[in-house]
Amino acid sequence: MRAIKVLLVDDQELMRQGLRKMLEIEDGIEVAGEAADGEEALQVAAACRPDVALVDARMPRMDGVELISHLSARHPGVAAIVLSTFDEDDYIFGALRGGAVGYLLKDCTPEELVDSVRRAGRGETVLASPVAARLVAELRRTPPAPAPPTGPAMSRDRGRLSAREAQVAMLIAAGASNREIAARLRITEGTVKNHVSSLLRKYGLRDRTRLALHLQNPPDS
Predict the structure, then answer these.
(1) How far is the C-alpha of 72 from the C-alpha of 206, rounded, in Å?
(2) To 5 degrees, how large is the angle CA 67–CA 72–CA 75?
(3) Residue 125 and which of 35, 113, 171, 195 are 20 to 30 A apart at CA?
(4) In terms of C-beta density within 10 A (0-12 exposed, 13-18 middle, 19 or more buried), how is residue 141 classed?
(5) In what order do the strands lie in the sheet with 52-55?
(6) Model confidence over 151-181: pLDDT tens digits?
(7) Span 78-107, pLDDT tens digits
């Protein structure tokens, strides 16, 4: 099985060295490159083709949010996770809207970080508990959409969802992980991933994070 290639992006060399030492001892994970800011990260990403990028939020020349937007456009196969000391809304929502698949705080445990890298490498979304709570609170403040994902307008624009796809879509909108969806619907995680892929195609979206945000607050029909 191919190792997950990770790009470390942080302006503090000590932080990069610590992350490298932490990840290099893990089976199936390879640190493929490092960068001290966003501009350097784009160059390194083009050379090393990482699967996952661990990105600091605040950096000189180009911060993490801007970097993630560029990565999404130039290297859509890279799953970007913000690793930051800041849980401010501008960084959280900016990163997620830009295409990040996760947002972790630097006080997370080594085990949480490694698990997040593996999950991101599998295409899953990873959010620290305080960040997830902030996201849910923001979504609750947003006026509810007039129709569920299976409504007529959504069906007309994106293609009709099957009954199972509609169930998966509603659970994704509620913030459930693939494992939780599998347990709830009594299907395998592989089947859940297949439904997620189908939903992404039908909604014309690039990643699971954007799908969850879209399902929570679909655009006006």
Answers:
(1) 9
(2) 100
(3) 35
(4) exposed
(5) 29-35, 4-9, 52-55, 79-84, 102-105, 126-127
(6) 433 444 344 677 788 888 888 887 888 888 8
(7) 999 999 988 777 888 888 888 888 899 999
Instruction: Kindly write down the DSSP assignment for every residue of the chain, as one continuous string.
Output: -PPEEEEEE-S-HHHHHHHHHHHHTSTTEEEEEEESSHHHHHHHHHHH--SEEEE-SS-SSS-HHHHHHHHHHH-TT-EEEEEES---HHHHHHHHHHT-SEEEETTS-HHHHHHHHHHHHTT--EE-HHHHHHHHHHHHHSPPPSS-TTSHHHHHHH-PPPHHHHHHHHHHHTT--HHHHHHHHT--HHHHHHHHHHHHHHHT-SSHHHHHHHHHSPPP-
